[in-house]
Amino acid sequence: xxxxxxxxxxxxxxxxxxxxKWNSQxxxxxxxxxxxxxxxxxxxxxxxxxxxxxxQKLLEKINTALNSTYPIKKRKNxxxxxxxxxxxxxxxxxxxxxxxxxKILAFPDVPxxxxxxFIRGFLDGDGWITIRSxxxxxxxxxxxxxxxxxxxxxxxxxxxxxxxSLSGHNLRTRKKITPKGIKTTxxxxxxxxxxxxxxxQYLYNNLEENxxxxxxxxxxxxxxxxxxxxxxxxxxxxxxxxxxxxMNMKSLLQELMFQKGFDGVQIAxxxxxxSSTIYRWLEKTNVRxxxxxxxxxxxxxxxxx
Length: 305
What we know:
Layout: H1 24-36, E1 37-40, E2 43-49, H2 53-65, E3 72-74, E4 78-83, H3 86-94, H4 115-126, E5 127-133, E6 139-147, H5 150-164, E7 170-177, E8 183-192, H6 193-204, H7 215-232, H8 236-245, H9 249-259, H10 264-271, H11 275-285, H12 296-303
Helix pairs in contact: 1-4, 6-7, 10-11
């Protein structure tokens, strides 16, 4: 009697060779998985909060990149994508994504060509782009990362310094106790101002159609660029006067012009700068509608004795 054999039919499928060859999408997904992916038994899973619709959209993009037919399931408070493929699982574990990787995560050997994609993926999972309020109504942009592996974070610093020559960073230890009484230790890395702007340029400039990114962080970096140019590129003399008088230049000029009734020459004497400098500041801060440079009105206002 002949023995019967049956072929097991898999309900879903994905590109089993996805993590075998480096490209921009593979590097991004690996970086994102270092932050927000986990290996559970025979599955590779990403479980993202349902607080942001952009999380669902990102999982859809990852699914497409993997040529996957696995479903993205809506859970109580999250969106989840789980892929069960022994080859994918084996390949990604060789790249450092192992069970309980939180404290032992190793930095993979990413080719320089795809390093920015890997780091952008990691930022989208375990990072932030923020705008901080400083003294004198100034604002500063910040790009940061967080992870439980100190080794991973130290290599990240070295890779970034090697790639874009950042002049400084802030890597510090954060310890806390969870509501369940569990002690946790994480390592946070932050870059500010010009360094943050350089990092944003490195990660987001010249993206191509197939490059992956989290929608809301892409929008945040656009906002950060605008803030950087608005606040961080102020002239040194303007910043010094803001510090000296304890208020931003726009408020200072408004007070001198509209409350004290000073004209441009009197303001220049009050601030101990040249009249032409006051004109530039009035124009830059939009306190006064600028007149055409060189016109009679401009000459009377700027060069009046």
